[in-house]
Amino acid sequence: MRANRVRGSEAVEAGSGTTGPPGAGPAVVVLLTSAMAFSMMQLFVIGAFGPRLVGELRISTTVLGLTTTAGFGAAALLSPLAGRLVDRAGPRRCLVALLVLTAVSLGLIGAAPGTVVLLLAVALGGVPQALANPATNKVILAAFPAERRPGVTGLKQSGVQCGAFVAGLPLSLLAAGVGWRGAVWAAAGAAAVAALWAARALPSDPAAPARGPGAASSPHGVTRRLACFSLLLGCGIASVNTYLALFGSQRLGLAPTTAAALVAVLGVAGIAGRVGWSRVAGRPGRAEALPALLAAGAVGAALLLAAALWLHPLVWLAAVAVGSFAVSANAVSMVVVMRRAAPGRAGQDSALVSAGFFAGFAVGPPLFGALASAAGYGTGWLLAAAEFAMAAVVAVPLMPRRAGARDA
To answer: Which ranges carry the Major facilitator superfamily (MFS) profile domain (predicted)?
Structure first.
């Protein structure tokens, strides 16, 4: 079934009105969620198949860790260019390219004979990461009326956690039967099928807008502030994602399977939080207030992780809190971007905020690892709490004044 046609215009892209297209069908929502899941699939499969990769390819755990830096580093560097590309080439072309490049990246990982090809494949996978938020946000602005955009944004942002779940369970079970390479190639095939789906489901992109003062303007203060917020938020989230299971195993005495379940709990809470808080952000006066509040909640989550050193069951509550607050804040920041983007700049503004988030993912874990090795996990979790606290401070000026809380 073909999805409803997406009618884009620069006026709609401003996101300032309550009118808009009647809204695309559920197929478009599923497509956008799938695109977000595939955009980071190469990193998810490496995380899920890490032990197999280390054993078969004979690479060190240090090199395995460099894959995260390669992927997110490439995405952070390429995001500004990707945003401009989406604004000029159109979201349909970029979504198809995203899925094709994901298929190529996964295919290379499945065929990798050693370290060099593996790192090159993950770096190539940084391009889909960079394209994901600008392209999907542009589709939402063009295809859905203003009142539906926050909810759809939360659903499509939850695709990232869905991708982690798919890599961690269905693909891992498939790998037990056909090997890890076969499982990765199956994911590559699924990405190729999704590319064909996107090409058929979305209409042709409109002609590129003429370059003028609006299109050439620099990002406004809200976008720059959200990029800084996302950098600090990403540092903390990436540290928790990377070290939570290891913390549970090494310091709390959890069995490896139980420790891995901590990450699953965090992921499920992140899915629910992104969907729920994005819907709340759709209410008048709420979107700009939420980033600071959610980051403040993330501070409490990081402190719970530190307290778990003395009261071990707190680690489960902390995992839920990180997913509910920290992970969800990223989805809400995308809602704010789409509400505040100037005409013709939705892709570029989304990309700038994404670049900050990806940079945080590249920088945060090495900082945490060095500090935790020198002073212990408790100090590392305090660093994460400090990063979340600084993010909250950065986001405070976004909060609307009481007298002006009504949305424009």
So the answer is: 28-403
pLDDT tens-place string over residues 247-281: 888 899 988 778 778 877 888 898 999 999 999 98
Which CATH number does the domain 217-400 belong to among 3.10.250.10, 3.40.50.10420, 1.20.1440.230, 1.20.1250.20? 1.20.1250.20
The Cα–Cα gap between 151 and 331 comes to 10
Pick the closest to residue 82 from 361, 343, 337, 354 (CA basis).
Answer: 354
Equal fold, 7-14+24-205 vs 217-400: yes
The phi and psi torsions of 60 (rounded to 5 degrees) equal -80, 160
Domain spans of the chain, in order of start: 7-14+24-205, 217-400
Degrees (nearest 5) of the Cα angle 209, 213, 219? Answer: 95
Residue 27 has pLDDT above 50, yes or no: yes
pTM: 0.82
CA pair distance 189, 205, nearest whole angstrom: 25
Q: Record the tokens describing residue 291, joined without a space.
A: 């980033």
